[in-house]
Amino acid sequence: MKPPVIIGLIVVIVAVIALVVSQQPQPAPAVSLCDALPTFNPIDGSSITELKTEDLTVGTGAEAQTGKTVVMHYVGYLANGTKI
Predict the structure, then answer these.
(1) Rg of the chain taking only CA atoms, in angstroms
(2) Per-residue pLDDT tens for 10-19?
(3) For the chain, what is the mean pLDDT?
């Protein structure tokens, strides 16, 4: 073979190898599920003296009375940040 043909083949082989190597799948970046959660700062449980209540949506019905049934939805957090 002539030297220009050999050089051309080498260039083609190197280009193909570079193309194959550049298309190898890259590992995905590490993502934590906690990245999307709001931050929570736990408090010292010994400082809790009473239950805090807050009306987020005030209803239009009658006020709750002793002996009657009420329905509510609540979200709570333990002192260590666990949602309950």
Answers:
(1) 33
(2) 888 888 888 7
(3) 77
Alpha-carbon dihedral sign for residues 23, 27, 28, 29: negative
Distance between CA atoms of residues 31 and 51, nearest Å: 36
Can you read off the two tokens belonging to residue 10? 């080498």
CA 31 to chain centre: 7
CB atoms within 10 A of CB 54: 4
Element (H, E) at 13: helix 3-22
Q: How far is CA 23 from the centre of its chain?
A: 29
Sign of CA dihedral 64, 68, 70, 75: positive
DSSP string, 25-63: PPPPPP--GGGGSPP-----GGG--S-----SS--SSPP
Domain locations in the chain?
A: 3-39
The predicted model scores a pTM of 0.29
